[in-house]
């Protein structure tokens, strides 16, 4: 399994990965995006920015990189970077299928992505991903599974995914929404010929949204690698939007709110990879300080008290504008 490469890494950032959702397309829901990206959001500007981030991340020990079909040109940008650096053979690449990017490189599109977990979409997007990433792809995930997703019950799809797994591709899924725990548990029960189908799960978990933790612990115990996304709550846990309690703890550690927020996740025994969603190299450098944050019991208690109900969290997330 490719994630064994991460487990054997010796760098302090071996469990921090880089997700390219924020830089693979001009529009996204992260707070502060206007400041982060500026006015030039052309394809070439974001390609250059992505390559700078990838260079910085790899140089600082990051070995997992996360993209998706719906993240604009993220797969293309990553593929270009890999082709220009053939000597890099120590990384793990994960992508996702199930959403189609529909914004046509616009920040004010009426609809930015369309969800479809059908076999037809899987076959189309698998071919698109293969054309770009080829054999550099290690992990392919169903994007944003919910408890009612047809991907959990579609036997034809399961057979297709099992076939890909037999050819060496790791198969996983990601979750979103207030019922993440239910989706994780339902996915853990999916088998093909008596063998569990999924080897990884990627879920939202952060100081504000902790509801999936018990299910993620169960997934870890079942042998899945747990990847944590949205650790910064789409910017709600970063300056200047961070809650006062987080700002106070960050001041006590002499590090940024982002490093503290990600450090809280790294403490979870079930967390295998925690994603940075940095849009700038300075943000990335600050994020990577999470590996050296040492939180005491009092600080942990204050941060734990920030958790919202999943209904409140996801309702607020759904109200974030595409910048």
What are the key terms here?
323 residues; single chain; 13 helices; alpha/beta; two-stranded antiparallel ribbon; TIM Barrel; 8-stranded parallel beta barrel
Textual characterization of the structure:
The chain has 323 residues and is an alpha/beta fold. It has one domain (4-318): Alpha-Beta Barrel (TIM Barrel), CATH 3.20.20.100. The chain has helices at 4-7, 33-37, 43-59, 74-84, 119-133, 155-166, 180-188, 213-221, 244-253, 257-266, 281-288, 297-304, 310-318, and strands spanning 16-19, 64-66, 92-97, 99-101, 113-115, 139-145, 170-175, 191-192, 195-196, 200-204, 225-229, 273-276. An eight-stranded parallel β-barrel has the order 1-2-3-6-7-10-11-12, surrounded by six helices. The longest helix is centred in the N-terminal third of the chain and has 17 residues, at 43-59. 47% of the residues are buried. InterPro entries: AKR2_Oxidoreductase, NAD(P)_OxRdtase_dom_sf, NADP_OxRdtase_dom. It holds the Pfam family Aldo_ket_red. Residues 50-307 form the NADP-dependent oxidoreductase domain.
